Amino acid sequence: MSASLWVRWMAMQGVPRAFLSVRALRGDPLARLLLGRAEPMERNLLFDRLRARGGLVRTPFVRVSADYEVCRSVLRDSRFGVTNPVGTGLPQPMPALMNWADPGIPNPVEPPSMLMVDEPDHARYRRAVAHSFTPRAIERLGDRVETITADLLAELTGDADLLTGYAARLPVAVMADLLGLPDHMHPHLLEWGDSAAVLLDIGVSWAAFRRAVASLRHLDRYLHEHIPRIRRGELGETVLDPMITDPTLSHREIAANAALLIDAGFETTVNLIGNGIVLLLENPGALARLRAEPALWPAAVEEILRLESPVQMTVRTAHRDVELAGERVAAGEMIILLLAGANRDPEIFADPCRFDITRPNAREHLGFGAGAHVCLGAALARIEGAAALRGLFERFPALRLAAPPERRGLVTLYGYRRLSADLGSPVRSPAPGA
Ligand code: HEM
């Protein structure tokens, strides 16, 4: 790896990492959270403490909110924009150094990925793919999702790691289908996505950063062949077609957004399914109710998204001076929006730490964000989550964990690395592809 990559890491991640590490050593709970050192109990306590201090809290290094109303209003307010990791709010020469050291590969968490640009570019990119992800378009995918789920369940026997053997495989298969990616690519996509997921965090280590960039390089090389194949019509219809045929979009714009769809499409949903498996095993009453009333599965998925949010936080930057929650936020200031904290705000969700699949307002959670950047794949994630969890618990009624679940160790993307399970006997054998 080149020296310029190290310079880029240092400017983007190394300096914040050193700063956060010093603060964490002094016991700063937010720094501990951002470095992935806070256990779930400590994290929840931090959310409560922050809310007790106000809707918007100023810390020595950043503003932060765990308050539902503040998080939601910032996400929906056009006076705030996304936080470009390449230089936002940092003094020169940091941004200049980062640009000089740009490895020039499509990165889902840097511009021109739609996740990291404001209007008007954001609307241009999003519009090109949005119609494939509307609830109506996704409804038509329902049978395909059920078929893939049944095929995966048919392969599960005895002892299994439900994370790699099941939860990760459904979303990658569905996204690969939509993007025209062949089956033999699934393991590569999973490996690349897993290494790149860390880039959503703040203060990433040099080793993890290097691995992530290496994975993005592999993906870039692959997209360099894949995009022309779509352009030549060799892969049938894909969700990328409107982007690829848009003459105003460059290869880099198409590739960055394709990389975003690939990673966002399964690195998040795997956590919804994994977190759901653990929550339901910990709450046998809820599971019994779902067995008796399967119509409650969609509501259970909302409650999982609320209580164990797969995306725990996002960041926004003020475009101009703004009055917010009685505070003045200056142009250029960043706010960390703790979506997971907002989803446990007792002002909105009664008894917020309780898992309640009949909670009337669970669907109001901010697990998919809100405003212009609200999750494009929310409808897809919802049907995948319900199909995967319902299918698994119906087929293996005696399912239990064979070892304590192992956490993934990321901060923004929250989920498990391994779920070793003893499946017990299957109830019936779904015909593969049925
Ligand atoms: C449980 C699963 C998922 C969760 C919790 C989730 C969560 C989120 C959140 C919180 C955001 C907003 C981030 C921000 O405002 O900074 C987002 C954006 C996005 N998500 Fe998802 N997501 C999930 C699944 C998916 C799937 C299956 C896709 C596949 C299409 C997808 C594609 C996207 C895209 C493209 C964006 C960027 C939208 C934009 O910037 O306009 N997500 N997601």
From TrEMBL:
Record has S-adenosyl-L-methionine as a keyword: no
Keywords noted in UniProt: Heme, Iron, Metal-binding, Monooxygenase, Oxidoreductase
Highest rank taxon of the organism: Bacteria
UniProt family annotation: Belongs to the cytochrome P450 family.
Keyword Metal-binding: yes
Pfam families: p450 (PF00067)
Gene3D superfamilies found in the cross-reference section: Cytochrome P450
Name the UniProt record assigns to this protein: Cytochrome P450
Needed cofactors: heme
High-level lineage: Bacteria, Bacillati, Actinomycetota, Actinomycetes, Mycobacteriales
PANTHER family (alphabetical): BIOTIN BIOSYNTHESIS CYTOCHROME P450 (PTHR46696:SF4), P450, PUTATIVE (EUROFUNG)-RELATED (PTHR46696)
InterPro entries in the record: Cyt_P450 (IPR001128), Cyt_P450_B (IPR002397), Cyt_P450_CS (IPR017972), Cyt_P450_sf (IPR036396)
